Amino acid sequence: MSDAKVRLYVEQPLGPGQPVPLTQDQAHYLFGVMRLARGAAVSLFNGRDGEWRAEVAEAGKRGGTLLCKDQTAPLRLPPDLWLLFAPIKKARTDFIVEKAAEMGAARILPVQTRFTNSERIRQDRLQAHAVEAAEQCGGTFVPEVADLTNLERLLADWPADRRIMWCDESLVGARAGLLEAAGGFEARGFEEGPKRPSPGPWAILIGPEGGFSEEEQARLRRMEQVVPVSLGPRILRADTAAVAALTLWQSVLGDWR
Amino acid sequence: MSDAKVRLYVEQPLGPGQPVPLTQDQAHYLFGVMRLARGAAVSLFNGRDGEWRAEVAEAGKRGGTLLCKDQTAPLRLPPDLWLLFAPIKKARTDFIVEKAAEMGAARILPVQTRFTNSERIRQDRLQAHAVEAAEQCGGTFVPEVADLTNLERLLADWPADRRIMWCDESLVGARAGLLEAAGGFEARGFEEGPKRPSPGPWAILIGPEGGFSEEEQARLRRMEQVVPVSLGPRILRADTAAVAALTLWQSVLGDWR
To answer: What is the ipTM, given to two decimal places?
Structure first.
């Protein structure tokens, strides 16, 4: 950890002595909003080079430069986990992206399903939410937010080795756990013990309000990669389901173990 | 399930043939907003008598009456789990209450800690959020939202038999799992198997931004009921931590098993 009060995502490479020129927005935030002066410490990460302590070398109204000093944390990649979800109301979609970044998803894919209300998303705005979440939660990695993709097309080209944890509304109340369903993994996610092998590529699929269409359900059930999982006996809103599914996956198969 | 398009929480008793008079707000919602007419079905629950199918018997601008027909779901109580959290910004506090109701907390207690920003809460507004969440998620139970209580006072009278899953920021990245920490429960929360005994009274404690003070931490560590639990290697916002902790608890000890 660094003594910096501000954590900032930048796109430039980070390394010892590396100067980091600031955009106008960044300069406004650091010098106008946060009132940092020359010599003040800032924590930087770019999603590739870990976290670095930098100092303000030049501060201006429209720009400025930081100077990278020491690495304060190595790059920490999340497991190879994608989150697929059907965009819902704006605030809840923002929330899902923020939470997925906090919870350690590697890639976030908004998908268009039969019952998805949303025709389009603002990919740039969602990506900015992912950046902000990483800044806040001390992450050194920012998940990519993909453009809205049609679920059917996505599944048509689905990689053979990427399993899908399908959070299926029809399983509400059923006894379908992640572990028994995934098979091959021992159901002892929380025990102290030797590090188990990486679970390999996975995705979590969360449905829209109203669930999946019958065709979509049948399609998913036919896919060998798909692991239907219940999220308990209550119906969860999509945003709750996303956080709950990420928690289950991370605690059983991911980097919470 | 009922054919009703609307689920409504009411305070009156529910039973066969039971008339349910409506408040002005409820009448406005059912007849003004949702445009229900005489004979239309409404799903009712009151937190005590399960879910009932009722029909509109009288519809007026300022009131009306529903008539209870058949029970469509029994009362389903959540496990004896409290959620203690330090209120944060308004939107995130609302969110925590909504999620706690969805995830099956039995009681929600906003607590004032050393580093809690909030001096007061609107208990009535938070309770309304819990009701709305239960209406949306098909619950038949509504958790009580308590008034803001001082954590120190709460802990001074803490019941000897109620364990506290303490989500401790200082454990970020440590290997402290719920199961190994709780002890006595086998770490196989997701396996098919005979129903295990109820875990007894529990509470989840989520800290404010900035965490707990040193005095609070020392106090919690001294309590026999306290089980410190890590929520993975990333720092989570309080609202994320609440959903993640509820997921862990429900899947390992609660009614997701």
So the answer is: 0.87
